[in-house]
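Project standup — Tuesday

K.O.: blocked on the structure for the chain from last sprint. Re-posting the sequence here as requested.
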Amino acid sequence: MTLPKGYVGKILRVDLSRGKIKSTDLDEELAIKYIGGYGIGGKILYDEVPPWVAPLDPANKLIFATGPITGSIAPVAGRHTVITKSPLTGYFGDANSGGLWGAELKMAGYDVIVITGRPTTPQYLYINDGKCELRQANQYWGMDAREADRAIRADIGEKDAKAATIGVAGENLVRYAGIVNDEANRIAARCGVGAVMGFMKLKAVVVKGQSRISVANPEALRNLSRDITTHVKSNEDLVSFTKGGTPSFFEMVWELGDVPAYNWSRGDFGGEGDPGVSKIAYPGGYEKIFSGNRACYICPIACRRLSTVKEGPYSFEEKVEGPEYETMAAFGPNCGIDNIECIAKLNDLCNLYGLDTMSAGSTIAFAMECFENNLLTKDDTDGIELRFGNCDAAIEVLNKIVKRDGFGDILAEGTRRAARLIGKGAEAYAMEVKGLEIAMHDPRAGQAFGVHYACTPTGGRHTEGLPFGQEMSGDRFSTEGKAAVAKTSEDWTAFHKSTGFCEFASEMSAYNNDNTIEVFNAVTGLSLDYNKALLIGERIFNLKKAFNVQHGATKEEDKLPKRLLTEITKSGVVNKLPEMINEYYSIRGWDKNSRLTPEKIRELDL
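H.V.: unblocked you, prediction finished:
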């Protein structure tokens, strides 16, 4: 068996406890069966992290993985994934980021980095064209992620190097800390991957490389890339998306009832007529902070927006990135905040601290509702008036969370643990699945999202499957056939994300499923069709599921917060998960206890 094109063919293994580094070959069968990203990373995690290893344990693994598309000349292909056992959920954890870091890792000579152990003092890993070393990082410990990124690159004299760093949230083991790259503008945010990196006392992974990634059919790939770029630059909708990015979705999805408000309890934002929407959407209030665009690696879409607030209490460094839609929703309507400058400030603080904005915003919204309902008082919150719409209170609490100071120490644990610590029925307000705060898309606006959120291995993720788009072509409030819609979306997403493609490669450009596979085949030299790609995706998805089962997950974790099943907001319906879940199990080849059947394991060659 020959390794497909698009891969460097090397895995870097780092033992921080012993200070040992070694390079091993990437196995051809592993690449073909699991592709890359959380496919290959997930297989390594499954094989090497047994159930008795805790997330914050030197024996856990922190895995940085690219895909065969990453770093090639294919457009919209700069993604990398971080995989670990999650300190937030205790199950499979992964987080995905764009920008330039993943491509640079490939050019530096590695497809995957597998890190384990814990040194006595902080360190960072430096990779330069295949040469690797661990260096002391005492002087950078305590810096915010952007400051550390710039300081390390200045000290090594490589301004063009790319750094993936943690901020103080990771250092202080906040359970939803992320790992940021590109001067703290892009982030692998979810599942607490930054807390694992902080526990390992690893401040940064810095990469510099000049190699080029070989592809199987460069002429076909150039032709496909040219067609895609022409389409993006000439399509009116895509030109609009280039400027507005994900915030340009905001008003549309709000009207569909897809945006949570006031901790998922209401369908209005800012009063009668929803005046808060126009204050933060693009076009609208977002234009007050907009100051330009930026692209990830070889991307013609360039949907990253630069933001600037020069003066006032919410000012921050000029031309940093964001906020994205998820951040706008989490800190905006879900916290009742309609000040776009404040939301942008919260976004930049999260990037500096290295913090998942979805989990942070959701956890603060949860605390706000607890305060509004007298489960918390100012005595509990260190004197903070933690009410919906209070932006200054949100900033103050965020600062406490990352330092684990006072009340912030409770919220640093995430909503599931925080609710148990607060008691008094606070669990009713904890909007999480498997311990992960759910993404900012309401499963009452589309039924397939409900069974998807409930059953995905990492919790309520919109990036583990996005069935809402498929639902829009039919009756989104019907449960008929929605288990199958969820499964297909999940399997496709598992394949797609393992390749190194950006989510918007198929969502927003000339790519569709067939075009995506054409590009994949041109890079790798493989001959996949859509059904073969779905089978690989199904294998990867079920690998993650198998890890969870092995690590203690039961059917009881396949649920939604009660609020989503009983309370009506803007969409006018509740999610009807009980009508879909058994059908989903059956289609998935899981038994009634939510475990893979022997037949499914054999079918998928797991």
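K.O.: great, moving the ticket to review. The mean pLDDT is 95. The two ends are 19 Å apart (CA to CA).
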